[in-house]
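SAMPLE LOG
Freezer: B-3
Tube label: C17
Construct: single chain, 402 aa
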Amino acid sequence: MSGPASGARRVPASGARRVPASPRGVAIVGAALSDCGRVDHATAFELHHQAASRALADAGIGRDEVDGFMSAGLGVLQPIEVAEYLGLRPSWADSTGVGGSTWEFMAEHAYAAIAMGLADVVVLVYGSTARADLKRGLRGANLSFGTRGPVQFDAPFGHSLISKYAMVARRHMVEFGTTIEQLAEVAVSARHNASLNPEAMYRDPLTLEEILTEEPIADPLTKHHCCIRSDGGGAIVMVAEDRARDCAKPPVWVLGTGEAISHTTMSEWDDFTESPCVRSGRQAFGRAQVAPADIDVCELYDAFTPMVLLTVEGLGFCAKGEGGSFVEDGRLRVGGALPTNTDGGGLSACHPGMRGMFLLVEATRQLRGECDARQVPGAELACVNGTGGWFCSAGTIILGKD
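STRUCTURE (predicted):
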C-alpha cells in the first residue's frame, strides 16, 4: 500500500522545499476527538486546540514539525486565526469549505500536497459549539446557510434543510418503493452502534416502532430521521511515508481519493435520487484499485436517513433504487454485513456541524483496531464518504492498513 521512501530531504539547506521526483505515499498517523456531546465550558477555539493537541500526541509529533495546516468555519481569517491560536506557523495552508464533506476534500488536498513535497506534516482540525450556541440563542438552526446567493431563491418557499432531505426521501419512495420502515432502520442501526460507543451522545435503545409513531417534521421525516445537535471537534495528522514509520501509532494509508460538486439550488439538481458521490466514489475506488466488495467498514455522512441510502447506492454497494432493501436486517450494524457509522454516526454519536472530520477519525481508529466493543474484526479497508449541504458536494476517501 506504500512504496519505498523517496529519500528526499524534508527541508533543504537553502530553505526551499525540494519536490520529490515521484509522488510519495501518504498516511494518517494521528486521530483524536476533543470533548464532545454537551460541552458548555469551552469555546470553539478551545475545542480546536484540544483536538489538534490530542491528535499530535496520538501521532507522537511535535508542533514544531507541523508545516501544513487546514481548518474551516472559524475566524475571519480562517485558517490563520486558528493556526495562531494553536501556536503554529505553517508554510502550507488550506481553508476549503464545501459543507459537511469539507474534511474529505481537505484530506485529498493534503494528500496531493504531501505527495508532491509541498508539505510533510499536515494537521486537519475542526471544532464547533453548535449545540451550546443554539441553547444560548447565538445562532439559528439554519443560520449557517444564510439567505444570500442562490439559496435566497429557495428560502421564501420554506425550504429548510430538512425539507430538502424530505423531498429526497419522498422521491426515492415514489420511484423505487422505498418504505419509511427502511429509512427508519438506518437510525435504529446507528443507535445500535452508538450503544457500543462510550463517547456517543445517545446510547439508549431506539426501536423501529418508536420512530414510526413520531410526528412528522417534514413529511415523511420525523425526529429520529435527523441528526442530533452536539458540540465537539476532531483532528487528524497526515504525513509523508518517510515520516510515517517513525510515529507512535501504525500508519493508516490513503489509498484513493475523489471529490465532486453538484448544486445549491434544488431546481438545478438533475436527479433527486443521485448523490455526487457517484463521481467522487468512482474516482476514489479507481485510484485505490479496490472495489466496494473489498471494503470492511464504512463511515458515511448521515445527517438524515435518506442520505445513507443515496450514498450506499452511489458508491456501488448496491444498485440504484435498492438502498432501502440493502439496509434491512441489520446490515449496517457492527456485526452486520457492512458495518457503517460504527461510532453511532451523526444520528446518535455526535454532530456539531461539519461531521466529515469525525468519519476520518473513526475510520482511522477502526483500522488501527482501537474501538473495543464496536471494533470490526479484521478491518483492513475503510470507505469514508462526506456529503455537504443537501447533496451539494461529496468527498470519498479509501483508507487501508499496511
